[in-house]
Design brief:
Layout: H1 2-6, E1 17-21, E2 32-35, H2 48-51, H3 54-71, E3 82-85, E4 98-101, H4 111-118, H5 127-145, H6 166-179, H7 187-190, E5 192-195, E6 204-206, E7 213-216, E8 223-226, H8 239-247, H9 314-323, H10 344-371, H11 378-381, H12 383-393, H13 395-401, H14 403-415, H15 418-425
Antiparallel strand pairs: 1-2, 3-4, 5-8, 6-7
Helix pairs in contact: 3-10, 6-14, 12-13
Keywords: Mitochondrion, Transit peptide
Main location: mitochondrion
Protein name: Altered inheritance of mitochondria protein 9, mitochondrial
Length: about 450
């Protein structure tokens, strides 16, 4: 925050920082940042954002896009990692001498494990170096933690043993390592920029009258990253659509005994563009066997997305804050997943609102293009890279969850031929993968057992 506020490169309203400590070894007993109070309101509370009129939502989107455009300016740093400020010779904190150091990571509570992970936090010279560091870390973790498994089905995972076992891990380890060389972003997407990592409406304060931004907060995990992995929409513009699509079977097969888990992405949203295919599922979604749904009895009657004037209970908010499995959950609680008995009118209402979010996302991308011509195709060209980065850095559990996607990407890139793969390695092309993978790319494997 101090760097961005002091740098002449950026024009972003950021509160002044008076002090901070990012460890648990301080009088407070937790990481903290002491900053100035700034005027403004948080319009994510109680679903206020979704209650705004369309013209006012456009104003909010425009303001957010301006922030991302500012952060997308070429950085003065040449490494990937978090920004730190060196202390002065006499312990002075405000020296103005900034540098890129290790990425930040949530402590696990295990000192030995935290010390092990710290070796793989950078800083890094390239995205490929970051990915290979994570792959090496996961390999060493497997060697340490899985060398005494009583059976192949003993790996702790939300997925069934058929989808999470040492053999699957070994295959994914090789596929991901090989693919890192092909996911070389082209030059226009390779420039290093400042990545907020959680640019969402809940982390922005707005003037209640003009809806202009008065302050952007929550910079703890901001870092220097290639532009290509910052091509993400604010969560408020679509995360709910992924859950709804998954519950209706839109993200891959879900009701067969050996079917793969549906695709789940934290930073890429399913595009609802029409009411086609919106119908109650024939039975309760079996994908709950693979991942815990963000829902509890406390939220049964709460749907701030379609009923933004409802005030959530503290019980519901507490549940969602402690059980969410994504790094960036949506601002309001999610409605319950539809079932065979869900009225068609309710499904249509929810889908219609998700279609509106599709157009808001496209307008957000259009505003980025308006602010900087170089960002015109960012949200289109970065999709596969954002997904790949999420998989690799998500660790073994994410590898297992995305295994069908990883295999599909591998086979599709095998089929394009070496000349086109060389184009990707050289950073002269863009990787494109279908929205939803259903093994269309082949996979020329025949099991003769």
């Amino acid at each position: 925050m101090r760097y961005l506020k002091s740098s002449p490169l950026y024009n972003i309203p950021i509160p002044k920082v008076y002090g901070w400590n990012l460890t648990f070894d301080n009088p407070v007993g937790a990481p903290y940042i002491l900053r100035e109070a700034v005027p403004g309101i948080n319009i994510s509370k109680d679903g206020r954002f979704y209650a705004l009129s369309a013209p006012n939502i456009i104003k909010v989107i425009t303001e957010l896009a301006k922030v991302q455009a500012e952060l997308s300016k070429p950085s003065e740093f040449n490494k990937l990692g978090c920004i730190y400020e060196r202390e002065g010779p006499n312990g002075e904190e405000e020296t103005g001498d900034f540098y890129v150091g290790k990425m930040l990571s949530f402590p696990t509570g295990d000192e030995e494990e935290d010390a092990f992970r710290e070796q793989y936090l950078g800083p890094f010279d390239s995205l490929q170096e970051l990915w290979q560091a994570r792959i090496e870390r996961e390999t060493l973790s497997a060697i340490s933690n899985w060398s005494h498994l009583p059976s192949d089905s003993s790996i702790p995972s939300m997925l069934p043993p058929s989808k999470a076992n040492p053999q699957q891990f070994g295959e994914l380890l090789q596929l991901l390592s090989g693919l890192t060389t092909l996911f070389t972003p082209p030059k226009e997407l390779s420039r290093l920029v400042i990545h907020h990592s959680d640019l969402a409406i809940r982390n922005v304060l707005f003037d209640p009258e003009t809806l202009k931004i008065t302050g952007v907060i929550d910079w703890e995990f901001a870092s220097v990253m290639p532009l290509v992995v910052t091509g993400r929409f604010p969560d408020d513009l679509g995360w709910e659509g992924n859950e709804f699509a998954r519950s209706l079977g839109k993200l891959g097969p879900t009701n067969q005994p050996n079917s793969p888990p549906p695709e789940i992405w934290d930073h890429h949203y399913y595009d609802w563009t029409s009411l086609n295919g919106v119908a109650p599922p024939p039975s309760p979604p079996s994908m709950t066997d693979y991942i815990t749904y963000h829902h509890s009895p406390a939220t049964d009657s709460i749907d701030l997305f379609t009923n933004p004037t409802h005030t959530p209970t503290s019980t519901a908010l507490e549940y969602l804050s402690t059980t969410s499995t994504t790094s960036s959950p949506p601002s309001p609680p999610l409605p319950a997943p539809p079932t065979a008995s869900t009225p068609a009118t309710e499904l249509t209402t929810r889908a219609s609102r998700l279609i509106k979010l599709f157009y808001y996302r496209k307008y957000y991308a259009a505003r980025l293009a308006r602010e900087d011509f170089a960002l015109t195709r960012l949200m289109m060209d970065s999709v596969a890279y954002v997904k790949f980065n999420e998989v690799v850095t998500g660790g073994a559990e994410k590898w297992f969850m995305a295994q069908e996607w990883v295999r599909e990407v591998y086979w599709r890139l095998m089929e394009v031929g070496e000349s086109k793969r060389e184009v990707l390695r050289s950073g002269e092309g863009v990787v494109r993968i279908p929205e939803v993978v259903r093994r269309r790319g082949g996979g020329r494997e025949v099991n003769l057992e």
